[in-house]
Amino acid sequence: MVLVYEEDGCPVRRGASASGFAIASASSASSSASQSLPRRTQHLAAPLEEESNQTTTTEDSTMKPQALFSAAAFLPAFASAAPSADKRAAKPPAFFLAGDSTTAVQSTGGGGWGNGFLSFLKKPAFGTNYGRNGRTTVDYVSQGHWATVKDAVKSNTANFDVYVTIQFGHNDQKPEKNISLDQYQTNLGNLAKEIKALGATPILVTPLTRRSFNSAGVVTNNLSNERERTIAAATETKTTYIDLNLNSRKYVQAIGETKAHSYNLVESDNTHLNAEGSVVFGRLVADLVLQKNKGLEQWFTPNKTLSDEIWKAINSSTV
Question: Residue ranges of region Disordered (predicted)?
Answer without folding.
Answer: 31-61
